[in-house]
Design brief:
4 helices; mainly beta; single chain; about 260 residues
Length: about 260
């Protein structure tokens, strides 16, 4: 059955006409939908920002620290990191959103897993047609919600208690003879609408056709951008302000890609 987000996503005369038709027919949102359903699967992935040549650098291997030097000369070693996705919707080119089912519940994406590898977010049945955008919700991890997932919760590889946390990135920064331990933490929530793009970042339209195979999309994000401008010699005094700016950076660094390949 095709499930769509019906609350408040329609506007103006269209919304009035549809609402009237639903009352008259005493039916659900899909009253006029005669197309064949198409399954879409959505994934998440992370990576470092592109270098000056437009390439994606590698800062570490699977289950290993992510190591690089930030813009102020501090060597960053991320030993443990998570970003939590709590929901997503695929959006048609006329603006209608279809909510995804998250069979594993909230997604605690482990930043020390292999860059560009994908983790399942969820899936939905959608009508045939053109799709241009993806809605993504970031929010705090709730163990109770994860425990209720129909297919069992995503694992948290390090066993970290993420309750109430949306972003958690811990490790050590060093420069000259100075070594500073850090933990960047945010429990904020945010929802954004992203244009679907090809793997190289070019905006694209996704045509969903029954019998044409299950379309796929990926929520991509960077992790090194969080550390721009941080002088760890004053980290303790500035930690609160740094944490307060994490969600804004995450939103700015998130992209939606057609398929599962970012290149």
């Amino acid at each position: 059955m095709i499930q769509r987000s019906c609350s408040g996503r329609r506007g103006g005369l269209t919304g009035v006409l549809v609402a009237s038709a639903l009352v008259a027919g005493n039916a659900g949102c899909g009253l006029f939908d005669t197309s064949n359903p198409v399954d879409i699967n959505v994934f998440a992935a992370h990576h470092a920002r592109r270098d000056m040549d437009g390439l994606l650098p590698s800062y570490g291997f699977n289950n290993s620290p992510r190591t690089w030097v930030n813009d102020l000369g501090w060597q960053i070693n991320v030993t443990e990191g998570y970003i939590v996705i709590t929901g997503a919707s695929i959006v048609s080119c006329d603006g209608e959103a279809f909510d995804l089912d998250l069979p594993f519940g909230p997604v605690p994406e482990y930043l020390n897993a292999t860059d560009l590898d994908v983790i399942v977010v969820g899936s939905a049945e959608i009508p045939e047609g053109d799709y241009c955008e993806l809605d993504v919700q970031y929010g705090p991890y709730r163990a109770e919600e994860a425990a209720m997932a129909s297919e069992g919760a995503h694992p948290v590889p390090t066993g970290r208690d993420l309750e109430g946390q949306t972003i958690f990135i811990a490790g050590r920064a060093s420069k000259d003879d100075v070594v500073v331990d850090f933990a960047l933490i945010s429990g904020e929530s945010s929802e954004m609408r992203l244009k679907l793009r090809e793997g190289d970042g070019t905006p694209t339209t996704y045509e969903a056709i029954a019998g044409g195979g299950a379309p796929k999309a990926t929520v991509g994000k960077t992790y090194d951008r969080f550390f721009d401008g941080i002088d760890f010699s004053t980290y303790e005094a500035e930690a609160e302000a740094i944490n307060a700016g994490l969600m804004e950076i995450l939103v700015d660094e998130t992209r939606a890609y057609r398929g599962t390949t970012i290149y």
